[in-house]
Amino acid sequence: MRFISKTSLGGVVEQLFTLDEIPGVLWTPEDAHGTRPLILMGHGGGQHKKAPGILARAHHFAAEGGFAVAAIDVPNHGERPTDEEFDRIATEYRACMAAGEDTAALDTAMYTLVVGQTVAEWQAVLTAVQQLDHIGGGPVGYWGVSLGCAFGIPFVAAEPRVRAAVLGLQGSPVLAGTAAQITVPVQFLVQWDDERMPRAQSLALFDAIGSAEKTLHANPGKHGDLPRFEIDDSLRFFARHLS
After folding, report:
1. How far apart are the first and last CA of the chain?
2. Which one of 56, 99, 167, 234 is separated from 227 by 20 to 30 angstroms, measured CA to CA?
3. What is the 3-state secondary structure (H, E, C) of 182-213?
């Protein structure tokens, strides 16, 4: 892991890093010492590791909860090079969305193309970050909605170091089998009027999650209208399960 820059704002230290070819960012409270809980945060489709929503949540979790937070650019996003096949699928996906057509087959194709790589990268980043003295091998949580949920579900299912997850804004049927393998506590977010994910599919995915402890948070509004108060609810959820 190679750190590129270090800045501080509002009691939170931000460090940009690379791990092999993976660009990432780490947020920690100022003067952080010793082991602390770590939250890995997955961004949405077409976004990146420092998208406004990711940045706001990371600062809140670090400043108010004392957590370390890490995010990466997943394949074909942010500073990552784009794959020709991924670009083709993404272009077709946007056209189908604009025309109001079913995108299930494209969801599956996009997911299948890079899910294995993304899970392996998150595991490598988790291992590297936990070797840092001011983070250590403490409990780990995952936060990711939309694309962050699509890649987060297989990661949470495969990674025993993750103890709790906030997921949602997702309902692709291809995720159901993997979701059944999740056993950690889950908070699942649904936008009731989501124009991208049919409500019935989102509820079916929540139902498929294998965790004995899982909670559904449903709010009115479209895909991008997730209420700001859900940041505080996520913080309380992680504090309950990781502290």
Report:
1. 26
2. 99
3. CCCCEEEEEECCCCCCCHHHHHHHHHHCCCCC
pTM as predicted: 0.94
Q: What is the DSSP letter of 92?
A: H
Tokens for 203? Answer: 């509820």
β-strand pairing of 140-144 with 38-42: parallel
Strand order in the sheet with 2-9: 2-9, 12-19, 22-29, 68-72, 38-42, 140-144, 162-168, 186-191, 214-219
What are the E-state strand segments in 129-177? 140-144, 162-168
How crowded is the C-beta side of 73, counted as CA atoms within 13 Å?
20
Residue 185: both structure tokens together: 């506590």
Question: What's the burial of 18, exposed, middle or buried (CB within 10 Å: 0-12/13-18/19+)?
Answer: middle
Q: State the 10-residue block means of pLDDT for the chain, 243 residues long.
A: 96 97 97 93 94 96 96 93 86 85 78 88 97 95 96 97 97 94 98 93 97 98 95 97 92
Dihedrals phi, psi of 144, to nearest 5 degrees: -170, 130
